[in-house]
């Protein structure tokens, strides 16, 4: 009975902060607790649309956490499950790596987003489905804002200049638009669940993102989009063949056009960075050079003449980055956590499993070529995906 | 019991996060800046460039470029922007000639903390308007093509020219009752900028006994007097009246020369001068009578 009451209060947050998503909940009731939590979450995540407000996310999440904790909305007394234990082990190794880093101050100064991740993960995982839905909806609104800011420029503006002018803290290069795709499966699920009248905001933000993809001219985005389609359609066995063919045809055409126009220099540069990351791991095998230490040390590796002469702070490959930065221990802990997360997803029901699996695989695909813990969006998306990596029934049952 | 303990630990973590956000408010911008490849912060410092360059004048812009870090600027350059009205003739401290495009590419990378001095020399077209801007950039080929790290833009408002026109209003002098002669002339500002605090220079011959008076024809212009010089607003005029001695055997003709030198940088002198050389035999004959 108590759980039902809590669920209703969280639903109020959904109505308050996520009403634009057009959700229809039968047993919703308004409460100050849930409303304030929802407002804090929405403001915290939307603050990421502007550079001047980006640091607000930490105190706002902390306030939301305090509010939920002291109103008994967080299940803080439950024993940690396997995923949470794996996460704790990985973060502990992250901390140990920072303590032994080449530049400890640098490693710790750039690890504040890790704290944001931890807070958001706890809120999403222990706060219930309502918190997670508000988070997902807020991120959809954030993505829509980013997309519109990218589009609101003359057509002759180049993609890098467009990203710079948008001045959104999460977007540093055109490839950063790929973070939207990590959550597309979850947003699509929310769209299909919404009442017909409530679907238009979802359609607007998704169409805006598609248009923004076109102007960003990012090959990674199209590659990931194709991979996500394959997963979504692939899990539905009846459509496996058709979906696979369509996705591959579209992605092959897009990639071919983009490759012809943009050349292979970025691939060659990535190979050099991967080689440098591998060499750094070989020289610091256990705990690496420290979180975010790749950029400080990779220039010491001899890979010949650099294709990209600039300072590049991350190697554009997550596993190699974790190996170089946190060593074998840190990278094995992270991979273990990922495997456990996939196993958790398998416990979900059909629709949830498909969306979660697509989101995780999309995230993994981006991580193989671009994503880095040096990005704020990487931590936030990871928190959302891991926070929902268990079946809803298992998380909310008494 | 477990929930209470967890609540205490979690609250402590939240409080710690809040404190961290207060004592380290710039963490988000620091994270973002460190994620930029080739991120540099370039600063421009004047070594005596004009606060208000004047259209049509020679231009000298000495400056210092400093890389505030944190990375080395591989291809630093300073770019001028003044449409096509800026003609750079030569420069010091730049690689190559700036005549083809108004920019200076510094020949060698600029390390964090390093400064380099350079200077531009050129000419600003009289039609130049608005402001002359300078931007410092650091560009290079990139794995992820980054926009130019434009960190600073210095702007210098261009001061447009003043165009004074002098015009005689009377073809012949008016003869006063006492025989003296009177002419009227106007000083008009046809340029785009106000002419401020100047002293008009007129030459009347014969000078002995000559007088001149001034009146303003609009609310924004003032005749010279007291402690201040003349002011003629754009489109405004001052009207002068000169009264001169009658013609005589010793002064058989009268010569009025009107030339305006209002501003040190006025460029259009075409209409700044008017003169009349008057020697009417009738007047001389009357005098002889």
Protein traits:
heterodimer, A: 398 residues, mainly alpha, 18 helices, 69% helix, globular, disordered N terminus, B: 289 residues, mainly beta, five-stranded antiparallel sheet, four-stranded antiparallel sheet, 3 helices, 39% strand, disordered C terminus
Outline the structure in words:
- The complex is a heterodimer of chains A (398) and B (289).
- Helices cover 69% and strands 0% of the residues of chain A.
- Chain A has 398 residues and is mostly helical.
- In chain A, helix 2 runs parallel beside helix 7, helix 4 packs antiparallel against helix 15 and helix 7 (129-151) packs across helix 10 (200-216).
- The model of chain A is unreliable at 1-8, 10-30 and 391-398 (pLDDT under 50).
- Chain B is mostly beta strands and 289 residues long.
- Chain B contains 3 helices and 18 strands.
- Chain B has helices at 2-23, 27-35, 281-288, and strands at residues 40-46, 58-70, 76-81, 86-92, 103-105, 115-124, 131-138, 152-157, 164-168, 174-175, 181-189, 195-198, 201-205, 211-216, 230-232, 237-244, 254-259, 273-278.
- The relative contact order of chain B is 0.13.
- Residues 141-152 and 283-289 of chain B have low confidence and may be disordered.
- Chains A and B meet through helix 3, helix 6, helix 8 and helix 13 of A and helix 1 and helix 2 of B.
């Amino acid at each position: 009975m108590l759980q039902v009451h809590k669920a209703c209060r969280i639903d109020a947050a959904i109505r308050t902060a996520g009403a634009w998503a057009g959700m229809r909940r039968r047993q919703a009731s308004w409460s100050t607790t849930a409303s304030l939590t929802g407002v804090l979450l929405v403001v915290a995540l939307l603050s990421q649309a502007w550079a001047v407000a980006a640091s607000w996310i930490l105190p706002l999440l902390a306030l939301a956490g305090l509010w939920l904790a002291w109103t008994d909305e967080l299940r803080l007394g439950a024993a940690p499950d396997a995923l949470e234990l794996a996460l704790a082990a990985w973060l502990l190794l992250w901390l140990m790596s920072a303590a032994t880093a080449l530049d400890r101050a640098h490693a710790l100064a750039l690890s504040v987003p890790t704290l944001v991740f931890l807070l958001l993960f706890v809120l999403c995982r222990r706060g219930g489905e309502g918190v997670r839905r508000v988070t997902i909806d807020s991120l959809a609104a954030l993505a829509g804002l980013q997309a519109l800011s990218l589009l609101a420029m003359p057509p002759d503006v180049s993609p890098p200049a467009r990203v710079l002018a948008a001045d959104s803290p999460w977007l540093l290069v055109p490839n950063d638009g790929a973070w939207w795709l990590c959550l597309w499966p979850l947003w699509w699920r929310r769209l299909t669940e919404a009442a017909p009248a409530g679907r238009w905001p979802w359609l607007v933000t998704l169409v805006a993102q598609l248009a923004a993809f076109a102007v960003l001219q990012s090959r990674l985005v199209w590659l990931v989009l194709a991979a996500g389609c394959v997963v979504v359609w692939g899990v539905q066995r009846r459509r496996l063949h058709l979906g696979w063919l369509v996705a591959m045809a579209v992605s092959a055409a897009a990639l071919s056009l983009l490759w012809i126009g943009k050349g292979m220099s970025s691939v060659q540069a990535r190979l050099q960075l991967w080689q440098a990351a591998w060499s750094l791991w070989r020289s610091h095998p256990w705990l690496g050079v420290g979180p975010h230490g790749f950029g400080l040390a990779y220039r010491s590796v001899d890979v010949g003449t650099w294709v990209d002469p600039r300072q590049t702070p991350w190697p554009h490959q997550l596993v190699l980055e974790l190996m170089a930065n946190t060593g074998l221990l840190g990278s094995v802990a992270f991979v273990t956590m990922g495997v456990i997360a996939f196993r958790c997803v398998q416990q979900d029901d059909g629709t949830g499993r498909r969306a979660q699996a697509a989101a995780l695989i999309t995230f993994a695909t981006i991580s193989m070529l671009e994503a880095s813990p040096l990005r704020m969006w990487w931590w936030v998306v990871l928190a959302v995906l891991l926070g929902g990596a268990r079946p809803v029934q298992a998380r909310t049952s008494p | 019991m477990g929930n209470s303990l967890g609540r205490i630990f979690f609250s402590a973590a939240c409080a710690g996060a809040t404190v961290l956000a207060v004592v380290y408010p710039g963490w988000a911008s620091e994270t973002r800046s460190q994620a930029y490849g080739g991120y540099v912060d370039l600063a421009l410092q004047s070594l005596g460039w004009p606060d208000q360059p004047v259209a049509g004048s020679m231009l000298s812009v000495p400056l210092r470029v400093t890389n505030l870090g944190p990375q080395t600027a591989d291809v630093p350059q300073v770019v001028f922007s003044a449409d096509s009205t800026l003609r750079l003739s030569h420069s010091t401290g730049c690689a190559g000639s700036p005549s083809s495009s108004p920019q200076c590419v510094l020949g060698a990378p600029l390390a964090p903390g390093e400064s380099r001095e350079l200077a531009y020399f050129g000419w600003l077209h009289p039609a130049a308007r608005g402001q002359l801007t300078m931007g410092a950039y650091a560009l290079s080929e990139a794995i992820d093509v980054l926009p130019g790290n434009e960190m600073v833009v210095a702007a210098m408002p261009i001061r447009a020219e003043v165009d004074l026109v002098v015009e005689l209003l009377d073809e012949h002098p008016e003869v006063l009752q006492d025989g003296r002669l009177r002419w009227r002339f106007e000083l008009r500002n046809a340029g785009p900028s106000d002419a401020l605090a100047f002293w008009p220079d007129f030459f009347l011959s014969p000078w002995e006994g000559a007088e001149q008076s001034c009146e303003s024809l609009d609310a924004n212009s003032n005749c010279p007097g007291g402690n201040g010089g003349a002011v003629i607003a754009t489109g405004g005029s001052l009207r002068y009246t000169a009264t001169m001695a009658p013609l005589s055997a010793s002064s058989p003709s009268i010569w009025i020369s009107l030339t305006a030198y209002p501003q040190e940088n006025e460029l259009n002198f075409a209409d700044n001068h008017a003169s009349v050389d008057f020697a009417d035999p009738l007047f001389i004959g009357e005098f002889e009578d």
